[in-house]
Amino acid sequence: MSRLAFVLYTDPEQRSELVKAQHALQAAIQLKRKGHDVKVFFDGLGVKVPLHEKTRELVDEAMKEGIVAGACGYCASPPHVNVTEKVRKAGLQLVGDESRHRDISMFMDEGYQLVIV
């Protein structure tokens, strides 16, 4: 079975980006259920995906499957997207902080193939 890390950069406030996020989450959930080792990480404007009303149900489902690896704390921080507290309240772990952006190679270092959305 494969090891895949879905990294979502999509801005859910843009319709085409919202659809990409929904499909990526659906694919990640389906692959997990088929036995693949899957992680989902929200980065860049993608830190807003767990907060959007049209993706929240899928994010909750992904969290129940145990595949959500968190959101970028640097991108969520006040100087950037400014949703740190909202992301925490949504139950996601923040990776990195306002002064430290974690590199997505952290998934590659663990043997995951990256799926960038």
UniProtKB/TrEMBL annotation:
Family annotation (InterPro entries): DsrEFH-like
SUPFAM superfamilies attached to this UniProt entry: DsrEFH-like
Highest taxon, organism lineage: Archaea
Gene3D superfamilies: DsrEFH-like (3.40.1260.10)
Protein name: DsrE family protein
Species: Sulfodiicoccus acidiphilus
